[in-house]
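Researcher: Re-running this chain for the archive, since the previous output was lost when a drive failed. Same request as before.
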Amino acid sequence: MKADASFNLMDRAWIPVTLTNGGHRDLSIREVLEMADDIMAIDGDIPLQRFTLTRLLLAIMYGAFNRRFTDGQGRERTLDASLWLFLLKEGAQGRFARKVLDDYCGRFQDRFDLFDPVNPFYQVAGLHTAKKDVSGLEKLILDAPSGDPFFTTRIGEGLKSLDAAEAARWLVTAQAFDPSGIKSGAVGDPRVKNGKGYPIGTAWCGNLGGFLVEGSTLWQTLMLNFVGKAVLSGPYSAVSWNDDKPIWERTQRDEKTADDFDQPADVVGGTMFFHGPATLLTWQSRRIRLAHDGETVTGVVIANGDRLKPQNAYCFEMLSGWRLSDPQSKKLHRIVYMPRKHDPTRAIWRGLPTLITGDFTSKDVKDSKPAEYLRPFVLDWLSDVGVSSRPVRLHAFGVEYGAQEAVVDSVVDDALDVNLVVLTKRDKEMRDVIEEAVSSTDQGVGAFRYFAGLVAQAQGIEPDGPRQKAGELAYGAFDAVFRQWLRGIDEESDKSRLRQEWRDRAWSLLRRLERRYMEGVSPRAMVGRLLPQSGTSQEQSAPRPMSVAVADAWFQARLRKIFNPSARPEDATQTTRKGE
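Model: Regenerated structure tokens:
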């Protein structure tokens, strides 16, 4: 290592972005913040880095603005709704925002040098094992599974070294999503046994079902995900973001765990370790040191960092949804919420009702009956400040881990274009319309699956396989249709019209799927067969006929019950053929 090596992330280009004019550039942190009005989105080596790098920039926003400071007129202020709205409107080039961010970045610039010999960014200087081992870069790169090298974006020569910019991106991602498992045993860490760091769980974001509310520019995205302390109102007014600040405002970490930042293995459900959003945005789940030659990174040491469990972090982690855990609530004798992780097999729109304002959201928690779901607090904040009637993209991010959470199985990257009014306006009827649309779609797909099973039985085939394939086919067909319908909803939309429009669309789509499905069945299914009745011996003596015609009659009756289409079947069919 060169003693004078330096790569300061404040000034050196390392964050890939897409500009609003369609161009692509790599920029430093200062440049990204200065040009945020002209940047459409953060990019990355994998889509998940949009989430991790945006969280890093959000931590800078919290450090700069979510505190007491003196504004341009000499008034002492904290971030309230009026100041937040002012920042959103003025943009990154506004005089006030520019000065506050410039001052803040300058104050902590020395903590952002990737190769600093004393305070390296997101690392521990001198971190080493008893044998002075340095691991290969596959330990740093999230999508490079050790036993499956063919399923990765980096292979062969690409893993021998990384330029400093790419290494910085993977460093931030590792602190957010590094898998669990045995880590290097850092000398000086009292938890190390037999030279090994035994599992403490995934890095912090690995627990989450992450969301970003994305605007048309990066500045809008940063503001739309930047939450003021005023969100802690109502049932949460006693919650405090105590000692909340990003990691670069704290004492440099060493190989040991930090007081008040390492949750003991036997402590579950408490909140004293979370501190606040800025702390969690930059949580040091690992102790890391990058080995480098002054220009490129050639290896890495990754040891355990500060343990943190996600139970009841909903007032501190703003960018995840939450679910009530009955088993843990009973075990711990208190109400316990866990992050609501994303299902890689389930499109984001299918969980939309849990994100819309209504009786089940966080503002409606009752002592006697806790809400089943809490939506991300960022959506509560946007509801409180009254931001609506603008198109946004609700972007979901997450990781599905494999055995013992020690390997990455899949990455969640799904987005939904929607008018913000759908997520922020406290309109029970709007909530009911969308909740009914999702629910009726699930019921309709369930009916199609059952229909496919009946047709399989008419052919003498086991129904489980056809049912599964039919469900996948139906949800695949609904995906684009639902997203298109949702994009058309705004503040002026007539709720009754929306409700009936979706019923008709869904009914027509399922009828089309049924007709296509029947085109592929065998002649034997047309004739059908007799199926034994289940139940008593008397019922078993009277077999029931099953054929495509019987399945079709059942399916049509079921769809009419679910959707109650406004048009007669033949009229709806004609409309579909002409317009859809």
